[in-house]
Amino acid sequence: MKALYEGLFIFPETLSEEDLDQAIDAVKTELEKLEGSLESSTRLGKRSFARPMKKKKAGIYAIIMFRMDGLKIPAFKHRLKLATNVFRAQFVKKEESEIAQEA
């Protein structure tokens, strides 16, 4: 059964708007390859890091809600590292009761 996940994605700060669109589309493509589906995406904009990571001082943040079989999350993380412009990604499984409360 597919569960709902909230993903925090950090993209390189050097991406233009057009490149960011392509990077988010690449994430969606990887989701679809693993039989997942994109629910929504929200751009949070450029934010500075608390401390430099890999010699970078900032990144472009986005929250992407998606549905996917939990067993495919490790494969999704691996594909993101290889095939996309994602600097970092973190996922949290959302419970259906949490979603109702947020609405």
Automatic annotation (TrEMBL):
Alphabetized InterPro entries for the sequence: Ribosomal_bS6 (IPR000529), Ribosomal_bS6_sf (IPR035980), Ribosomal_S6_plastid/chlpt (IPR020814), Transl_elong_EF1B/ribsomal_bS6 (IPR014717)
GO biological process terms on file: translation
Pfam families reported for this sequence: Ribosomal_S6 (PF01250)
Coiled-coil regions, chain positions: 17-44
UniProt keyword terms in alphabetical order: Coiled coil, Ribonucleoprotein, Ribosomal protein, RNA-binding, rRNA-binding
Membrane-spanning segments: none
Gene Ontology CC terms, in alphabetical order: ribonucleoprotein complex; ribosome
Superkingdom field: Bacteria
Functional summary from the UniProt entry: Binds together with bS18 to 16S ribosomal RNA.
Record HAMAP family: Ribosomal_bS6
Family: Belongs to the bacterial ribosomal protein bS6 family.
Protein name: Small ribosomal subunit protein bS6
Organism, scientific name: Tichowtungia aerotolerans
